[in-house]
């Protein structure tokens, strides 16, 4: 319960800084969304290519294993990108709620240097480590 009270603290960042981080987050969001779409398209292409090869000639088991591995890698990367995208969206919501830059574990300010490196960070270095 005390953590919830701590999280409600207002941000230590001024309006200019919040706008800077909002801009960074929006750019990251757009980049992640594009990469997710590209990965989905890549996975679909692997499926289509595998179907074409199978219908055209005998398919070697090693080729099928490679295709499966590529698909698994693509889907794993998509999931990681989606997780990052969710964090970015939460960070944008926190800017709106004026709680951006406050550690969700300690309620203390997250260092600006950390936010520059990871604008969607929800925890200070101490809490994350």
Q: What labels would you give this structure?
A:
73% helix; Four Helix Bundle (Hemerythrin (Met), subunit A); single chain; 5 helices; disordered N terminus; 129 residues; mainly alpha; 0% strand
Description:
The structure is a single chain. With 129 residues, the protein is mainly alpha-helical. It has one domain (2-128): DksA, coiled-coil domain (Four Helix Bundle (Hemerythrin (Met), subunit A)). The chain contains five helices and no strands. The protein has helices spanning 2-7, 15-56, 61-96, 112-117, 125-128. The protein starts with a helix and ends with a helix. The model is unreliable at 1-7 (pLDDT under 50).
Q: Please tell me the overall pLDDT.
A: 84
Number of strands: 0
H-E order: HHHHH
**Strand residue percentage:** under 5%
Can you tell me the CATH topology?
Four Helix Bundle (Hemerythrin (Met), subunit A)
Based on the coordinates given, report the CATH architecture. Up-down Bundle
Domains counted in the coordinates: how many? 1
CATH superfamily: DksA, coiled-coil domain
Largest sheet entry: none
Distance between the termini: 22 Å
Roughly how many Å is the radius of gyration? 21 Å
* Spatial shape: elongated
Tally of separate helices: 5
In brief:
Residues 1-7 have low confidence and may be disordered.
Write the layout of secondary structure elements.
Layout (H helix, E strand, L loop, with lengths): L1 H6 L7 H42 L4 H36 L15 H6 L7 H4 L1
